[in-house]
Amino acid sequence: MDYQLATLGLQLPTDPRWVNIAEMNIEEILVDHAYCEQKAASSCISMIVQYPDYEKLVQILTPVVAEEWSHFERVLEQLDQRGYKLGKPRKDQYVVELLKHIRKGVGKEQKLLDQLLVNALIEARSCERFKLLWQNIEDQKLSKFYYELMVSEAGHYRNFLDLAKEYLSEEQVDQRWEEILKIEADIIRNLEVRGDRMH
Ligand SMILES: [Fe+2]
Ligand SMILES: [Fe+2]
Predict the structure, then answer these.
(1) Nearest ligand, CA of residue 146?
(2) Can you list the pairs that 97-102 forms with residues at least 24 positions away whose Cβ atoms lie under 8 Å?
(3) I need a surface site. Which of 46, 47, 52, 192 has the fewest CB within 10 A?
(4) What is the pTM of this model?
């Protein structure tokens, strides 16, 4: 799989200034990133709890929980190696804005669709950012670390999209995916570029 913007579906590239300011704030980036991994794990757990009778979902997302948790552990190691502490979670405006677009008062399957697509999108954007970090930062160990995470998150992105197509028609998925991609591009456009946040 390649990791181009177009392949991931993203409509707006990350501001090119982001990776440079992120590199100068690597402690903040690592702390924020650690919590992103933790939230990714808990989001999968919460979907398994909400949809226990969706066997394929349980089967696909259970190993993803373990992978996200191992990413969390690996970010903790990176913090530790640099003498940094985890600290408190930061407000994740990007995810807060995206979650507002999970529709309420719709059928169970429609809500599931939104949840899967929002998760796919967060994976896609993370993948894009890891690619920027991999290709641009000087610290070779960290660069390699981000390369590995980029590959892993790209796999999760596919998992969520494949699951959406498991439970809904191709047309339903494609139509909502286009809407959500536009919403995400607007969110990115309106968010301040901050070098202390993954998103
Ligand atoms: Fe992850
Ligand atoms: Fe992931």
Answers:
(1) 1
(2) 97/187, 97/191, 98/122, 98/183, 98/184, 98/187, 101/180, 101/183
(3) 192
(4) 0.94
Q: Which residues contact 49 (CB under 8 A, 6 or more apart)?
A: none
Please give the distance, rounded to the nearest whole angstrom, from the Cα atom of residue 17 to the centre of ligand 1: 23
Closest ligand relative to 156 C-alpha: 2
What is the 8-class DSSP label of residue 83?
A: T
State the amino acid at position 158 in one-letter form: R
Ligand 1 midpoint to CA 14 (Å): 19
Q: How far is the CA of 187 from the centre of ligand 2 (A)?
A: 20
CA–CA separation, 117 and 27 (whole Å): 30
Ligand number nearest CA of 148 is 1
Cβ contact 10:186 at 8 Å: no
What is the structure's pLDDT at 73?
98
Kindly list the distances between the CA atom of residue 161 and the CA atoms of 60, 102, 195, in Å, as whole numbers in the listed order. Answer: 12, 16, 29
Ligand number nearest CA of 153 is 2
Assign a CATH topology to domain 16-190.
Answer: Ferritin (1.20.1260)
